[in-house]
Amino acid sequence: KAGVTQTPRYLIKTRGQQVTLSCSPISGHRSVSWYQQTPGQGLQFLFEYFSETQRNKGNFPGRFSGRQFSNSRSEMNVSTLELGDSALYLCASSRGRLGYGYTFGSGTRLTVV
Amino acid sequence: ILNVEQSPQSLHVQEGDSTNFTCSFPSSNFYALHWYRWETAKSPEALFVMTLNGDEKKKGRISATLNTKEGYSYLYIKGSQPEDSATYLCAFLPGSARQLTFGSGTQLTVLP
């Protein structure tokens, strides 16, 4: 079965611009979570969506937002990009029940210049 | 802010050696503990989801144990192979929240 698909794989943006990243979960998975990884940092939780509703949000500024569509695909948006937003952004899908592991996508590498 | 710590940060072993590393997490409000393997240029891959105190899980040469009362989990690799080289991440899921908090990982390098 198809895995979690993230697009694009790489992205270069200028400070002040905005960016939208996309994540298509495994078929049947209704929960999508987003994580940020920067050099020297572990995976930092951004937010989680389940059935089009944001269930949890991490400690990130309001410039980071997301949404989930009825087909469970999710998008993450970052407005007014800063240099510090340069990171690997991973999304992970799960069935939504807590006893299951997450399946991660390959990530989007965002570079802000 | 939940504190999930992994040790050591990195480890170099010879092929054939057995090794283990530790994940420490809060001992209260426990729901689940996840282990993931993250190879370079790939996605993190789920190894185990552990939910019960005393749980032991095994997948091939890799096994894990869980002690929720004292807040730690061990991951063991028996007879390490070069293909085991990866970063091993643990992630804590408390009962009161629906988000995983990841440790910073243990980077394992198996030398041939």
Quick tags:
heterodimer, A: 113 residues, mainly beta, 7-stranded mixed beta sheet, 4-stranded antiparallel beta sheet, 11 strands, 0% helix, 50% strand, globular, B: 112 residues, 6-stranded mixed beta sheet, 5-stranded antiparallel beta sheet
Task: Describe, in plain words, how this protein is organized in 3D.
The complex is a heterodimer of chains A (113) and B (112). Chain A starts with a strand and ends with a strand. The model of chain A has no long low-confidence stretch (mean pLDDT 93). In chain A, strands 2, 4, 5, 6, 9, 10 and 11 form a 7-stranded mixed sheet that branches. A 4-stranded antiparallel sheet of chain A has the order 1-3-8-7, with no helix packed on it. Chain A is mostly beta strands and 113 residues long. Chain A is globular, with a radius of gyration of 13 Å. Chain A contains no helices and 11 strands. The mean pLDDT of chain B is 94. In chain B, a hairpin with a 6-residue loop joins strand 9 and strand 10. Chain B is an all-beta fold and 112 residues long. Chain B is built from no helices and 11 strands. In chain B, strands 2, 4, 5, 9, 10 and 11 form a 6-stranded mixed sheet that branches. In chain B, strands 1-3-8-7-6 form a 5-stranded antiparallel sheet, with no helix packed on it. Chains A and B meet through strand 10 of A and strand 4, strand 5, strand 9 and strand 10 of B.
Q: What's the layout of helices and strands?
A:
The complex is a heterodimer of chains A (113) and B (112).
Chain A: E1 5-7, E2 10-13, E3 19-24, E4 31-37, E5 44-50, E6 53-57, E7 64-68, E8 74-78, E9 87-94, E10 103-104, E11 108-112
Parallel strand pairs in A: 2-11
Antiparallel strand pairs in A: 1-3, 3-8, 4-5, 4-9, 5-6, 7-8, 9-10, 9-11
Chain B: E1 5-7, E2 10-14, E3 19-24, E4 30-38, E5 45-50, E6 56-59, E7 62-67, E8 72-77, E9 86-94, E10 101-102, E11 106-111
Parallel strand pairs in B: 2-11
Antiparallel strand pairs in B: 1-3, 3-8, 4-5, 4-9, 6-7, 7-8, 9-10, 9-11
